[in-house]
Amino acid sequence: xxxxxxxxxxxxxxxxxxxxxxxxxxxxxxxxxxxxxxxxxxxxxxxxxxxxxxxxxxxxxxxxxxxxxx
Length: 70
Hints:
The protein is mostly helical. The chain is 63% helix and 0% strand. It is built from three helices and no strands. It has helices at 7-25, 31-50, 55-59. α1 (7-25) runs antiparallel to α2 (31-50). The mean pLDDT is 93.
């Protein structure tokens, strides 16, 4: 697995996961939509920690900066 999630993307995913979790645990959003937000939040945290999003290669996206050879 090659990293394809950059630092800015990680930060956005973590912030969204916190917002989704807060909405769910404060019962602002409930039911199926609330559960979906919670699942998306868990996925965002996981993809941020491993720096890989399995959907990005399918779409040809890579937000990870390219490393230059020294």
